[in-house]
Amino acid sequence: MLSGLAFGACIDTEGPSGVTQPGPGNQTALSFNGAFAGHAHGCAIVNGGAALCWGAGGDLGDGTLDESATPVRVQGPQIFAQLDLSSFTCGLTTGIDGGQAWCWGENTSGRLGDGTTEDGLVPQSVDTELAFEDIATAGVHACAISTEDDLYCWGSNSFSQLLAHPDTFSVSPIPVATGMKFRDVDGGGLQTCAIDDGESLWCWGGNWGDSMVEVTAAPIFERLSVGGEHACGLTTDGEAFCFGSNTEGQLGDGTFDQDPLGSAPVPVATELRFIDISAGSFHTCAIADDGVAYCWGRDALGQLGDGNPAGEPGKKNTPTQVVTSTTFVDFVDISAGRFTSCGVTNRQVGLCWGFGTGSASQSFSFQPVEIGS
Q1: Helix (H), strand (E) counts: the chain
Q2: Which of 26, 272, 277, 326 is the most exposed place for a label (fewest CB within 10 A)?
Q3: How far apart are CA 41 and CA 203, in angstroms?
Q4: What pTM was estimated for this model as a whole?
Q5: pLDDT tens digit string along 320-372?
């Protein structure tokens, strides 16, 4: 395990196919390919695809129920291309076994998709022979797009997350929206949204109901991210739009106004253009085209990263710059969770801020700290 490892240190332990795995004693510096914030845990992809997690016990994929303030190695030989977190974790592999789906954590309503309802303390193979190109986790369900651009979901159906599926849950992937093709999917809370091959945006589950609803007057999104009760997207020229709940200012439009369900996405109140965006439970983060990170919405535990103590004020309804301790920090990847936000810089440094940063010295911080420090 890596608990307590300083991430400016070195690593060793050559893994499958020559991939360097985390561990003390080698002369290879640890670098981050992605950092992801969940509900009560965080995870990262490092080096050639090894996964690390920290936070609540049972969510870390290390085979134990132990919690850890700093990253521990996820068990197994998987080489991950992407991860997605909510209250559990799913990921897709790369390489020879590219597109295989694995999930771990609590398995309420079969949300791990492994054919059972047993919790997974290590990654569990999703019960399918399909290969996927995109995967998304939500509260108690998950969805993925196959390499044939078909959409599959599994887990709870209590709020129509699986659309017309007759049962209250499914422990294995089932096809949804058959006859349609998709290029992007994301989920959060009880809802899921997806972009079809004709660039239309559809949402379902939760307050959306038991059928797919086309989002009114939505722009064409290049990127899509779905949070707890809101969602955001980026157009091809980097303009940010959000829609859904705005109780915490998470839409970033300068108001706390609540629009009716299905209202057209509103533009984020800024002249900035963005390269990445992530909708969390009650806040949103994005990276501007100059590499500077911004967040908006709930700031109760420092998840906006602006260096100001929570409550001054506790929520902000326009983009607020994330303040780093060093200059020339260019972000290339960002993730908003529940109480935490994380990002990766162009130098492959992993940073988090808020509560549960993956740092033993600063597990709670109003501005970014290095994961594992």
Answers
A1: 0, 30
A2: 326
A3: 26
A4: 0.92
A5: 999 998 777 999 999 999 999 999 999 999 999 999 999 999 999 999 999 99
